[in-house]
Amino acid sequence: MPYGPYRSQAEQQQHVLMFRKLLLRRRLLRWVRTHHGAAYVPFCGDGDIAGALYGPWDVYGADIDAKRVQVATSRVPGTFKVADCDLWPFPGMATPVVVGDFDAYSEPYTSFRSFWAHGPKSDRMVVFFTDGHRMGLIRTGSWHMPSGKVVELSKADKLPIYFHYLSKHVFPWFDGFVAPEFRVLERYRYLRDQMVYWGAAIERIPQR
To answer: Which domain holds residue 192?
Structure first.
């Protein structure tokens, strides 16, 4: 489901099993504890995750929901704005991003690709994704690939992609997308029903 002005009941409840989201992030944040810069938090909601974890960094958050931006601003020190998170909302931002938290309800990759094209990046980063496309492809056969391409799958094609969604499809895309500039240091993931939650620590490859 695309991120937009209308939110279903599931979207309004942004964090299901919040403790698992925090554990995922804490595992990978150890790679950047000593790195100074910004935490970029599109789809910031009420600022729950940013308030719990991102105090060591300058928080830049955005959401299309003005009321949630207002709540996040009151709870978390940082810079927040109402914006379409599929686009890069902070033109002119110079502080390198150390943490990118793309906690969308289903489609995190459009926002990530926009950030990657326009945002400043630290030499070492962690990025997090909430991905609901595995649910869509098995239910309807319409697969929104992380590249942005949409593919209509036959019944026979759905299951192999569904069962190897991360290992054979999302992870190889991500590795190729950030290369040759960055390499992956560690990944971590968990599933909740058909939802996928994952993150990666990445590091800029030294130029010889």
So the answer is: 23-204
